[in-house]
Amino acid sequence: MTTTLRAAPAATIRTWLRRNLFRNRVDGVVTVVSAAVIGTVLFRAARFVLVTGRWEVIEANLRLLMVGRFPTVHLPRVAVSLAVASLVGGFVAGIVHQRQVAAGTSVVAHLSVVARLADLVERFWPALLGAALLLSLTSTAGPWITVGGALAAGLVGRLVGARLPALTHPVVVVAAVVTPFALVAYLADAVGWDSWGGLMLNVYLAIASMILCFPLGVLAALGRRSTLPAVRWISTGYIELFRGAPLFVLLLMANVALGFFVPAGSAPGRVARAIVVFTLFTGAYMAEIVRGGLQSLPRGQAEAGRALGLSPTRVTFHIVLPQALRNVIPAQVGQLISLFKDTTLAGFAMGLFELGNISESITSQGPFRGQQLLPEVVAFVALLFWIGSYTMARESQRLERKLGVGRR
Amino acid sequence: MTEPTAPADAAPSASRPPLWRDVRILRVAFQVAVVAVIALVLGTLVGNVRANSERLGIPTGFEYLDNPAQFPIPDSDFRQAQPVRDAIGEGLGNTLRVVLLGIVVSTVLGVLVGIGRLSGNWLVRTAARIYVEILRNVPLLLLIYFSYFALALTTFPRVADAWEPLGLALFSNRGVVVPWVDGGIAPLVIGGVVAIGAAVGISRWRTAVADRTGAPAHTARYALPAMVLVLSVAWLVSGLGASIPERDGNRVTGGIRMSPEYFAIFFALVIYTASHIAEIVRGSIQAVDRGQGEAASALALSGSQRLRYVVLPQAFRIAVPPIGNQYLNLSKNSTLGAVVGYFELARVTAISVGNGAPAVPSYLLLLAIFLVLSLVLSFGVNVVNRRLALVER
Predict the structure, then answer these.
(1) Which of B48, B118, B145 to mutate to test the interface with A (most CBs of A within 10 A)?
(2) Is residue A385 exposed (0-12), middle (13-18) or buried (19+ Cβ within 10 Å)?
(3) What's the CA gap between B274 and B135, in Å, rounded?
(4) Which sign does the torsion angle of CA B330, B335, B341, B342 carry?
(5) Model-wide pTM > 0.80
(6) Residue A116: per-residue pLDDT
């Protein structure tokens, strides 16, 4: 980067082009060649999306892609669960905001309502776009009520949450922990796990495994740094075994070989098996992430705790872990993203009716078989995953900037 | 584990805490308890496997490896009557073909895209960013489906009107054919090793001369011709020939063929892993202290010299461990070739289990092979890492 002493010339298209595309001869050649390649790719992609793609296969199977074969009579339960989840999420966001304002760290507090809405749109445009696309593909009222209800509940939760007295905050935290379990019980009460499907199942697998793997990962990370040799060896063995094994093979194994490891006739259902595998696998990675966080913490923190006369357990849980876990939140989100993407493996390996499996089956059976529509379905499903993963990744980056990880 | 002195025998002194609060006792007791629980769990699992296998009359040993496999493997000399052992060997070969080539190609692509993300050229920078942000955030399985069903089988034309870029390679829905050497791979490998050895030797010599005399090293000016010379001598001596794919109607001769399945898994793995490597490379370059690049500019090094001598060596030091992790991920993800019917290890194992091989030993063997593969790969990465690591106090 060169610095000139002259005042910067007025930014015209010409100077912009010269600065960014044609600085010298080589740069010009690079620009022309890459423009040709990018143009070809863009042209083919646009032609596929706008002209040759036969998207009626998505429209006809949208419900299958979203909720699988969940019976129609019980679909209101899905809508209610989504609304409750976003209400609780709104409460939490509201409380976080309240605390940030109190601590003076809020970025958006001084902005006008319009600017804050614009900030929200800027943060969640992929998700909003995805919701709009999904709604544009439906012809029934159900999805509209579901999405509208979830949005309204989230808004109400956020507004009420920002005004909740500090006394109720612990209640909300407890509610946030209990809600996922309660909602699963509520849904599974109507329709057994093994009949769940679609995007709902992918999301459920990811969230359930993430919640379960967290304590496992923290324990294994502490175990790996323990001064007790037996505990250290066992933790290291677990972590390295599961990090060295391909997830796909573990899932295949759970499908055909798990029955051998439990007493005859007591093998759990397929969804439970998948959750067990995802939990054990992600737990090993989580352990390494947490270990990184523990290592990044200066020794002085633990030593200061000891000097205050705290017991080793208290030092770990009140001083070391809170700081270490906060430092690795972005890495944990990264792990959640790859877990979300990896849930597609359960379909092929275990026959779960999740998105990867559905894309394959709606193009090989039923009215759309033999028409080579897999590209359309795979592109649509990939878009759904992209929206989820990209939104999480961006939120994680935002959080990273906010926490100032690596800069303090 | 060292046993602490048993305080029960010693006379209790005032300074000694009671047994249940003696840290040394607690440490041992806790470890014994943990080991006992783990042993109990593992013992139950093994006992269950044994009981279930006995009940179903399934063997638990590895004798099945000698039974005939009873399934064919396309694109190989494997015959159905050969034992399962050979089928697994074939599968390992197929896995390694994807993994080794995949590591090389995805590293090259990933480094290019990673540098491209920081390019001064707006078009290159934006395209690299879009590439990374799309590819990193979609499931690999869908990429594999897409590159198999949408690309390799549908978009690629029939053999009769195959794409032949520059007349060198041939893309059709029956696979991709690329040029290859005629007359065995051994002379090529030997020639290549000698040529690389010569190039390394010459550049070491030139560097030593430059260090001693201060004259410009001109490493590339000396080493590259030497390499070309050695290669062409090897070429002439061994009578190697190039085999370029040629099409005559529907028949393709010459070159080496990648099946659509191989192409799909290879292509998807490469573009997916490259997007992750690109992010690592970008992060590592940005992690190099700004002052380093500015100091290089102040010394009047050119842009490429600044990258080559100052920024990249430091960036790679940061990038090697995470890139090594990506190599491990790539090798594990290669099992997804099974999804499009590529005969790598997981698919061979799944089919042989379907044909009557006992499930538990088969999958344990598969896991063991991958553990060994992971160990070998991380050993290699560690060697590189140790050579690059800063020697500190």
Answers:
(1) B145
(2) buried
(3) 9
(4) positive
(5) yes
(6) 83
Element (H, E) at B175: strand B175-178
Q: What residues contact A367, with CB distance under 8 A and at least 6 apart?
A: A60
- Say how many CB pairs under 8 Å bridge A and B: 158
Q: Which residues of A touch B121 (CB under 8 A)?
A: 20-21, 23, 27, 30-31, 34
Spatial distance between the Cα atoms of A260 and B38, rounded to a whole number of angstroms: 19
Judge: A374–B145 Cβ closer than 8 Å, yes or no.
yes
**A373 → chain B, closest CA residue:** B150
- B142, A382: Cβ pair inside 8 Å? yes
pLDDT digits (tens, 9 = 90+) for B295-322: 998 998 887 788 888 888 888 888 888 8
CB contact under 8 A, B339 and A247: no
To 10 degrees, the CA torsion angle through B46, B52, B54, B60? -50
| Strand (E) or helix (H) holding B247 | strand B246-248
Percent above pLDDT 90 for chain A: 24
Å between A53 CA and nearest CA of chain B: 12
pLDDT, residue B129, reads 93
Partnered with residue B248 across adjacent β-strands are B251
**Are B122 and A342 inside 8 Å of each other by CB?**
no
Q: Residue B1: helix, strand or coil by DSSP?
A: coil
Work out the end-to-end distance of chain B between its first and last CA atoms, rounded to an integer number of angstroms.
32
Where do the domains of chain A lie? Answer: 56-70+194-408, 71-190
d(CA B276, CA B274): 5
Residue A18 scores a pLDDT above 60? yes
Q: What is the CA radius of gyration of chain B?
A: 28
Query: Nearest-CA distance from A13 to chain B in Å?
Result: 13
Question: Coil, helix or strand for B337?
Answer: helix
Tokens of A164: 């909740």
Of A345, A241, A251, which is closest to residue B374 (Cα–Cα)? A241
CATH class of this structure's domain A56-70+194-408: mainly alpha
